[in-house]
Amino acid sequence: MKSIFPTIKIAVFICMMSGILTNDFCNAQDSTSAGVNDNSGHPYIQWKSQYPDHKVGEVKVNTIKRIYNFLVQKDKESGISRPVAIVGKTPSSFWVLDQGAQTMYEVGRKKAERPKAFKKKENYFTSLVDVCEMPDGELLFTDSRLNKVYRFNKEEKKLVEFNDTNQLMQPTGIAYSPVTDEVWVVETGAHRIAVFNSAGQLIKRIGSRGNDTGQFNFPTSICIDKSGDVYIVDAMNFRIQILNKKGGYVTAFGEAGDFSGSFARPKGIATDTYGNIYVSDALFHVVQIFDRAGNFLYSFGKQGREKQEFWMPSGIYIDSKNYIYVADSYNSRVQVFQLINGS
Protein backbone atom coordinates (compact mmCIF):
# COMPACT_ATOMS: atom_id res chain seq x y z
CA MET A 1 0.00 0.00 0.00
CA LYS A 2 1.39 3.37 -1.00
CA SER A 3 2.05 5.98 1.64
CA ILE A 4 -0.53 8.77 1.90
CA PHE A 5 2.06 11.26 3.16
CA PRO A 6 3.03 12.65 -0.30
CA THR A 7 -0.64 13.36 -1.00
CA ILE A 8 -1.08 15.04 2.36
CA LYS A 9 2.00 17.20 1.85
CA ILE A 10 0.79 18.29 -1.58
CA ALA A 11 -2.57 19.24 -0.07
CA VAL A 12 -0.89 21.22 2.69
CA PHE A 13 1.30 22.95 0.12
CA ILE A 14 -1.75 23.99 -1.90
CA CYS A 15 -3.48 25.25 1.24
CA MET A 16 -0.44 27.29 2.23
CA MET A 17 -0.11 28.87 -1.18
CA SER A 18 -3.79 29.68 -1.52
CA GLY A 19 -4.08 31.03 2.00
CA ILE A 20 -7.09 28.91 2.88
CA LEU A 21 -5.60 27.92 6.24
CA THR A 22 -6.83 31.19 7.69
CA ASN A 23 -9.92 32.00 9.71
CA ASP A 24 -11.61 34.88 11.45
CA PHE A 25 -10.62 33.81 14.95
CA CYS A 26 -8.14 36.64 15.46
CA ASN A 27 -10.63 39.25 14.34
CA ALA A 28 -12.99 38.07 17.07
CA GLN A 29 -10.46 38.34 19.87
CA ASP A 30 -10.94 40.76 22.73
CA SER A 31 -7.24 40.63 23.51
CA THR A 32 -4.42 42.79 24.74
CA SER A 33 -2.28 44.01 21.87
CA ALA A 34 1.23 42.62 22.11
CA GLY A 35 3.89 45.23 22.60
CA VAL A 36 1.55 48.07 23.50
CA ASN A 37 1.97 49.73 26.90
CA ASP A 38 -1.22 51.57 27.82
CA ASN A 39 0.31 52.83 31.11
CA SER A 40 -2.79 51.60 32.92
CA GLY A 41 -0.90 49.27 35.21
CA HIS A 42 -2.70 46.24 33.77
CA PRO A 43 -0.75 43.20 32.59
CA TYR A 44 0.19 43.11 28.92
CA ILE A 45 2.42 41.16 26.54
CA GLN A 46 5.38 43.04 25.09
CA TRP A 47 7.28 41.93 22.00
CA LYS A 48 11.03 41.80 22.67
CA SER A 49 12.94 40.19 19.79
CA GLN A 50 13.07 37.44 17.20
CA TYR A 51 15.64 35.08 15.74
CA PRO A 52 16.63 35.22 12.97
CA ASP A 53 16.08 38.97 12.90
CA HIS A 54 14.70 38.99 9.35
CA LYS A 55 13.58 42.16 7.76
CA VAL A 56 9.94 42.01 6.72
CA GLY A 57 10.85 41.70 3.05
CA GLU A 58 13.22 38.82 3.71
CA VAL A 59 10.51 36.88 5.51
CA LYS A 60 8.13 37.26 2.59
CA VAL A 61 10.71 36.37 -0.04
CA ASN A 62 11.68 33.18 1.80
CA THR A 63 8.12 31.81 1.96
CA ILE A 64 8.60 29.44 -0.98
CA LYS A 65 11.91 28.24 0.47
CA ARG A 66 10.28 27.50 3.84
CA ILE A 67 7.50 25.50 2.18
CA TYR A 68 10.10 23.59 0.16
CA ASN A 69 11.99 22.73 3.34
CA PHE A 70 8.73 21.48 4.86
CA LEU A 71 7.98 19.22 1.89
CA VAL A 72 11.42 17.64 1.55
CA GLN A 73 12.69 18.15 5.12
CA LYS A 74 15.97 19.42 3.76
CA ASP A 75 18.85 19.88 6.19
CA LYS A 76 19.86 23.52 6.58
CA GLU A 77 23.20 24.62 7.93
CA SER A 78 22.53 28.30 7.41
CA GLY A 79 19.77 28.81 9.99
CA ILE A 80 16.45 27.81 11.47
CA SER A 81 14.04 26.01 9.17
CA ARG A 82 10.99 24.76 11.12
CA PRO A 83 11.37 25.32 14.88
CA VAL A 84 9.04 23.26 17.06
CA ALA A 85 10.36 23.49 20.63
CA ILE A 86 12.55 25.76 22.74
CA VAL A 87 14.47 25.81 26.02
CA GLY A 88 15.64 29.29 26.97
CA LYS A 89 17.72 31.06 29.59
CA THR A 90 17.64 34.57 28.15
CA PRO A 91 16.20 36.07 24.95
CA SER A 92 19.72 36.07 23.50
CA SER A 93 20.61 32.51 24.52
CA PHE A 94 18.37 29.49 23.97
CA TRP A 95 18.14 26.05 22.39
CA VAL A 96 15.84 25.29 19.46
CA LEU A 97 14.64 21.92 18.23
CA ASP A 98 14.29 22.20 14.45
CA GLN A 99 12.05 19.61 12.82
CA GLY A 100 12.69 20.89 9.31
CA ALA A 101 16.47 20.69 9.58
CA GLN A 102 16.24 17.52 11.74
CA THR A 103 18.61 18.89 14.34
CA MET A 104 19.02 21.10 17.39
CA TYR A 105 20.54 24.58 17.39
CA GLU A 106 22.15 26.63 20.11
CA VAL A 107 21.14 30.20 19.42
CA GLY A 108 23.42 33.04 20.51
CA ARG A 109 23.33 36.75 19.89
CA LYS A 110 24.30 36.58 16.24
CA LYS A 111 23.92 33.01 14.98
CA ALA A 112 22.58 29.52 15.51
CA GLU A 113 25.09 26.71 15.80
CA ARG A 114 24.54 22.98 15.53
CA PRO A 115 26.42 20.98 18.20
CA LYS A 116 29.02 18.56 16.88
CA ALA A 117 27.14 15.58 18.31
CA PHE A 118 24.26 16.35 15.93
CA LYS A 119 26.57 16.37 12.90
CA LYS A 120 27.53 12.72 13.20
CA LYS A 121 25.96 10.47 10.57
CA GLU A 122 24.71 7.97 13.12
CA ASN A 123 22.76 10.71 14.90
CA TYR A 124 20.02 11.12 12.33
CA PHE A 125 16.59 12.26 13.49
CA THR A 126 13.43 11.96 11.46
CA SER A 127 10.76 13.71 13.53
CA LEU A 128 11.99 15.85 16.42
CA VAL A 129 9.12 17.10 18.57
CA ASP A 130 9.95 18.43 22.04
CA VAL A 131 12.82 19.20 24.40
CA CYS A 132 13.25 19.84 28.13
CA GLU A 133 16.17 20.65 30.42
CA MET A 134 17.35 18.65 33.43
CA PRO A 135 18.76 20.24 36.62
CA ASP A 136 22.33 19.46 35.56
CA GLY A 137 21.82 21.25 32.25
CA GLU A 138 21.39 18.12 30.12
CA LEU A 139 18.73 18.28 27.43
CA LEU A 140 16.19 15.53 26.77
CA PHE A 141 14.36 15.45 23.44
CA THR A 142 11.90 13.19 21.62
CA ASP A 143 11.73 11.74 18.12
CA SER A 144 8.21 10.53 17.37
CA ARG A 145 9.14 8.35 14.38
CA LEU A 146 12.17 6.70 15.94
CA ASN A 147 10.05 6.20 19.09
CA LYS A 148 12.90 7.28 21.32
CA VAL A 149 13.97 9.85 23.88
CA TYR A 150 17.55 11.12 23.76
CA ARG A 151 19.84 12.71 26.34
CA PHE A 152 22.29 15.41 25.22
CA ASN A 153 25.09 16.43 27.58
CA LYS A 154 26.14 19.93 26.59
CA GLU A 155 29.36 19.90 28.60
CA GLU A 156 30.61 16.48 27.51
CA LYS A 157 29.05 16.91 24.07
CA LYS A 158 27.61 13.40 24.24
CA LEU A 159 24.30 12.21 22.82
CA VAL A 160 22.80 8.91 24.02
CA GLU A 161 19.41 7.26 24.43
CA PHE A 162 17.57 8.22 27.60
CA ASN A 163 15.84 4.85 27.82
CA ASP A 164 16.65 1.81 25.68
CA THR A 165 14.62 -0.86 27.48
CA ASN A 166 11.01 0.35 27.22
CA GLN A 167 9.29 0.70 23.86
CA LEU A 168 7.53 4.04 23.41
CA MET A 169 4.66 4.65 21.01
CA GLN A 170 5.14 7.97 19.23
CA PRO A 171 6.75 10.02 22.03
CA THR A 172 6.05 13.74 21.59
CA GLY A 173 5.85 16.11 24.56
CA ILE A 174 8.41 15.85 27.34
CA ALA A 175 8.82 17.68 30.67
CA TYR A 176 10.89 17.42 33.84
CA SER A 177 9.31 17.70 37.29
CA PRO A 178 11.48 19.58 39.79
CA VAL A 179 9.28 18.32 42.62
CA THR A 180 9.43 14.56 41.99
CA ASP A 181 12.67 14.43 39.95
CA GLU A 182 10.74 12.62 37.21
CA VAL A 183 10.56 12.89 33.43
CA TRP A 184 7.08 12.76 31.91
CA VAL A 185 6.78 11.70 28.26
CA VAL A 186 3.62 11.91 26.18
CA GLU A 187 3.01 8.77 24.10
CA THR A 188 0.68 10.15 21.46
CA GLY A 189 0.28 6.83 19.66
CA ALA A 190 -0.77 5.06 22.87
CA HIS A 191 -2.91 7.92 24.26
CA ARG A 192 -1.03 7.88 27.57
CA ILE A 193 1.82 9.37 29.62
CA ALA A 194 4.99 7.48 30.54
CA VAL A 195 6.76 8.56 33.75
CA PHE A 196 10.49 7.86 34.23
CA ASN A 197 12.94 8.61 36.98
CA SER A 198 15.86 10.87 36.11
CA ALA A 199 18.02 7.83 35.28
CA GLY A 200 15.61 6.73 32.55
CA GLN A 201 13.87 3.88 34.37
CA LEU A 202 10.13 3.53 33.76
CA ILE A 203 8.06 4.15 36.91
CA LYS A 204 4.49 4.05 35.61
CA ARG A 205 2.13 4.86 32.78
CA ILE A 206 -0.94 7.06 33.09
CA GLY A 207 -4.11 7.16 30.99
CA SER A 208 -5.83 5.37 28.15
CA ARG A 209 -7.80 6.39 25.09
CA GLY A 210 -11.12 8.11 25.70
CA ASN A 211 -12.74 11.39 26.63
CA ASP A 212 -13.39 10.77 30.31
CA THR A 213 -11.34 12.37 33.08
CA GLY A 214 -7.79 11.09 33.03
CA GLN A 215 -8.20 9.70 29.51
CA PHE A 216 -6.65 11.11 26.35
CA ASN A 217 -7.21 11.29 22.62
CA PHE A 218 -3.91 11.92 20.85
CA PRO A 219 -2.24 13.99 23.58
CA THR A 220 0.77 16.00 22.42
CA SER A 221 2.43 18.70 24.52
CA ILE A 222 3.12 18.79 28.24
CA CYS A 223 4.55 21.14 30.87
CA ILE A 224 5.08 20.89 34.62
CA ASP A 225 5.03 23.89 36.94
CA LYS A 226 7.17 24.58 40.01
CA SER A 227 4.62 22.91 42.31
CA GLY A 228 4.70 19.69 40.28
CA ASP A 229 1.29 20.02 38.63
CA VAL A 230 1.17 18.66 35.09
CA TYR A 231 -0.54 20.34 32.12
CA ILE A 232 -1.29 18.21 29.05
CA VAL A 233 -2.61 19.21 25.64
CA ASP A 234 -5.30 16.58 25.01
CA ALA A 235 -5.32 17.55 21.35
CA MET A 236 -8.17 15.63 19.77
CA ASN A 237 -10.37 16.10 22.81
CA PHE A 238 -9.70 19.82 22.29
CA ARG A 239 -8.95 20.42 25.92
CA ILE A 240 -6.22 20.90 28.50
CA GLN A 241 -6.03 18.39 31.34
CA ILE A 242 -4.31 19.18 34.63
CA LEU A 243 -2.93 16.36 36.79
CA ASN A 244 -1.26 16.51 40.18
CA LYS A 245 2.32 15.40 40.78
CA LYS A 246 1.20 11.80 41.32
CA GLY A 247 -0.80 11.71 38.09
CA GLY A 248 -4.22 12.15 39.66
CA TYR A 249 -6.84 14.12 37.77
CA VAL A 250 -7.35 17.72 38.92
CA THR A 251 -9.41 19.48 36.25
CA ALA A 252 -9.82 20.08 32.53
CA PHE A 253 -10.98 22.90 30.29
CA GLY A 254 -11.50 23.65 26.63
CA GLU A 255 -13.61 22.61 23.66
CA ALA A 256 -13.51 22.65 19.87
CA GLY A 257 -14.68 25.91 18.31
CA ASP A 258 -13.75 29.14 16.61
CA PHE A 259 -14.31 31.56 19.47
CA SER A 260 -12.11 32.90 22.27
CA GLY A 261 -11.07 30.17 24.66
CA SER A 262 -11.82 27.30 22.27
CA PHE A 263 -9.27 25.23 20.37
CA ALA A 264 -8.71 24.16 16.78
CA ARG A 265 -5.16 22.76 16.70
CA PRO A 266 -3.66 23.29 20.17
CA LYS A 267 0.10 22.73 20.12
CA GLY A 268 2.47 24.02 22.79
CA ILE A 269 1.72 24.70 26.44
CA ALA A 270 3.54 26.59 29.21
CA THR A 271 2.84 28.40 32.48
CA ASP A 272 4.16 31.72 33.74
CA THR A 273 5.30 32.46 37.31
CA TYR A 274 1.77 33.58 38.24
CA GLY A 275 0.17 30.27 37.26
CA ASN A 276 -1.41 31.47 34.03
CA ILE A 277 -1.58 28.86 31.26
CA TYR A 278 -0.44 29.65 27.70
CA VAL A 279 -1.54 27.52 24.74
CA SER A 280 -0.38 28.07 21.17
CA ASP A 281 -2.90 27.14 18.48
CA ALA A 282 -1.51 26.44 15.01
CA LEU A 283 -4.76 26.90 13.13
CA PHE A 284 -5.76 30.10 14.94
CA HIS A 285 -2.17 31.46 14.73
CA VAL A 286 -2.39 32.82 18.28
CA VAL A 287 -1.30 32.17 21.83
CA GLN A 288 -4.25 32.04 24.23
CA ILE A 289 -3.88 32.65 27.95
CA PHE A 290 -6.07 31.12 30.67
CA ASP A 291 -6.14 31.15 34.44
CA ARG A 292 -5.82 27.89 36.33
CA ALA A 293 -9.59 27.45 36.39
CA GLY A 294 -9.62 27.53 32.60
CA ASN A 295 -11.11 31.00 32.25
CA PHE A 296 -9.96 32.72 29.06
CA LEU A 297 -7.98 35.86 29.90
CA TYR A 298 -6.65 37.18 26.60
CA SER A 299 -4.57 36.25 23.56
CA PHE A 300 -1.82 37.70 21.43
CA GLY A 301 -0.84 37.28 17.81
CA LYS A 302 -2.65 36.80 14.54
CA GLN A 303 -1.84 35.20 11.21
CA GLY A 304 0.94 36.94 9.32
CA ARG A 305 4.67 37.35 8.83
CA GLU A 306 5.25 40.66 10.56
CA LYS A 307 6.51 41.03 14.11
CA GLN A 308 3.94 39.88 16.69
CA GLU A 309 2.26 37.71 14.05
CA PHE A 310 2.46 33.92 13.62
CA TRP A 311 2.19 31.28 10.96
CA MET A 312 1.27 27.97 12.60
CA PRO A 313 3.02 28.45 15.95
CA SER A 314 3.90 25.26 17.80
CA GLY A 315 6.13 25.03 20.88
CA ILE A 316 6.12 27.64 23.63
CA TYR A 317 8.48 28.11 26.59
CA ILE A 318 8.39 30.60 29.48
CA ASP A 319 11.43 31.27 31.67
CA SER A 320 11.67 32.46 35.28
CA LYS A 321 11.48 36.12 34.24
CA ASN A 322 8.33 35.53 32.21
CA TYR A 323 10.02 35.83 28.84
CA ILE A 324 7.82 33.94 26.40
CA TYR A 325 9.54 32.06 23.57
CA VAL A 326 7.27 31.01 20.69
CA ALA A 327 8.31 28.62 17.92
CA ASP A 328 6.80 30.46 14.94
CA SER A 329 7.20 27.34 12.87
CA TYR A 330 6.33 28.29 9.30
CA ASN A 331 7.82 31.74 9.59
CA SER A 332 11.09 29.89 10.36
CA ARG A 333 11.80 31.93 13.47
CA VAL A 334 11.51 32.18 17.23
CA GLN A 335 9.74 35.23 18.61
CA VAL A 336 10.33 36.38 22.19
CA PHE A 337 7.78 38.31 24.26
CA GLN A 338 7.54 39.25 27.92
CA LEU A 339 4.67 39.46 30.38
CA ILE A 340 4.69 42.90 31.97
CA ASN A 341 2.98 43.66 35.30
CA GLY A 342 1.55 40.17 35.28
CA SER A 343 -0.51 39.09 38.26
Structure description:
- By secondary structure, this protein is mainly beta.
- It has helices at 5-18, 56-61, 63-72, and strands at 44-51, 83-90, 93-98, 103-107, 112-113, 128-133, 139-143, 148-153, 158-161, 171-177, 182-187, 192-197, 202-206, 219-224, 230-234, 239-243, 249-253, 266-271, 277-281, 286-290, 296-300, 316-318, 323-328, 333-340.
- The strands form 6 sheets. It has a 4-stranded antiparallel beta sheet, with no helix packed on it. The protein has a 4-stranded antiparallel beta sheet with strand order 2-3-4-5, with no helix packed on it.
- Strand 7 and strand 8 form a beta hairpin.
- The longest helix has 14 residues, at 5-18.
- It is globular and about 50 Å long.
**Rounded average pLDDT:** 85
**Class by helix and strand content?**
mainly beta
Uncertain segments: 1-39, 56-61, 73-78
Proportion of residues in helical segments: under 10%
First-last Cα distance: 55 Å
Output the keywords:
single chain, mainly beta, four-stranded antiparallel sheet, 39% strand
Short description:
This protein has helices at about 5-20, 55-60, 65-70, and strands at about 45-50, 85-90, 95-100, 105, 110-115, 130-135, 140-145, 150-155, 160, 170-175, 180-185, 190-195, 200-205, 220-225, 230-235, 240-245, 250-255, 265-270, 275-280, 285-290, 295-300, 315-320, 325-330, 335-340. The protein is mainly β and about 350 residues long.
